[in-house]
């Protein structure tokens, strides 16, 4: 293999696919990036600096991983496809910026949704320093991954995530829109949201149906006090269980007593017939505090 040509180039990716008989697995959300401008765009959006500690979710055949390493990052990757470690170890450069690959890159075959960051990362990362998360996300679990990171105790300075445009729109949505919902509220109470770039579906093998968007999420310096984050996210989810129904109707699953529901709705200063998407984030915060946590 000519390792001078980046993995993220169409020619090199095609050669790797032919050499290892790679069949992109649809059930694992495999769409490999073959657009060096887009890959560089992700690395720039993540503001990668030498010795940054980066968690990559789903390195695939390594197109983004390679550029993260070349930019100086130390990369810890979670992957579930057992056929990929061999490819990554053969195809990523044996030395990066003078260091051995194994000192700069570690792969763990593990579902990101089962990550135990304190345990997984120790021994490879300096646990006193924060990390950055960078990923071209597997689209079938984009939302669970964002919730998982949002509710984890991972000490991160940014999440730079490629996702379908439709999910990116939900992250930045405002009340009274169809995109506004539990994901919007979970994210906006914890993080700032910036759409960094759009990537055409033609930049992937195989081509997904829709274009993608790279979104940069950074923890807010001044987070509103939502109480317990998991409880807050759960209450919001329940409020949107049937988004065409009124808040009062949705609350029936959380508070069975009608007088108590009436009291809670009055306490947050809204009409019982209001629909969940009409509530401001501050009102959801008040609401979650009125509802007892489940055991
Ligand atoms: N980073 C590569 C790229 O940009 O070409 C591949 C991105 S592909 C959209 C998503 C990757 O996530 C695949 O390699 C897939 O096997 C992996 N993946 C799927 N489910 C996963 C999970 N639960 N945990 C970790 N990785 C996962």
Automatic annotation (TrEMBL):
Q: What is its EC number?
A: 2.1.1.182
SUPFAM superfamilies in UniProt: S-adenosyl-L-methionine-dependent methyltransferases
- Pfam families per the UniProt record, alphabetical: RrnaAD
Binding site residues for S-adenosyl-L-methionine: 31, 33, 58, 79, 111, 136
- Molecular function via GO: 16S rRNA (adenine(1518)-N(6)/adenine(1519)-N(6))-dimethyltransferase activity
Q: Does the keyword Zinc apply?
A: no
Q: Which UniProt keywords apply?
A: Cytoplasm, Methyltransferase, RNA-binding, rRNA processing, S-adenosyl-L-methionine, Transferase
Where located? Cytoplasm
Catalytic reaction equation(s): adenosine(1518)/adenosine(1519) in 16S rRNA + 4 S-adenosyl-L-methionine = N(6)-dimethyladenosine(1518)/N(6)-dimethyladenosine(1519) in 16S rRNA + 4 S-adenosyl-L-homocysteine + 4 H(+); adenosine(2085) in 23S rRNA + 2 S-adenosyl-L-methionine = N(6)-dimethyladenosine(2085) in 23S rRNA + 2 S-adenosyl-L-homocysteine + 2 H(+)
Span of domain Ribosomal RNA adenine methylase transferase N-terminal: 38-221
Question: Which PANTHER family does the record associate with it?
Answer: DIMETHYLADENOSINE TRANSFERASE, DIMETHYLADENOSINE TRANSFERASE-RELATED
Reported function: Specifically dimethylates two adjacent adenosines (A1518 and A1519) in the loop of a conserved hairpin near the 3'-end of 16S rRNA in the 30S particle. May play a critical role in biogenesis of 30S subunits.
The family note in this entry says: Belongs to the class I-like SAM-binding methyltransferase superfamily. rRNA adenine N(6)-methyltransferase family. RsmA subfamily.
- Write the protein's name: Ribosomal RNA small subunit methyltransferase A
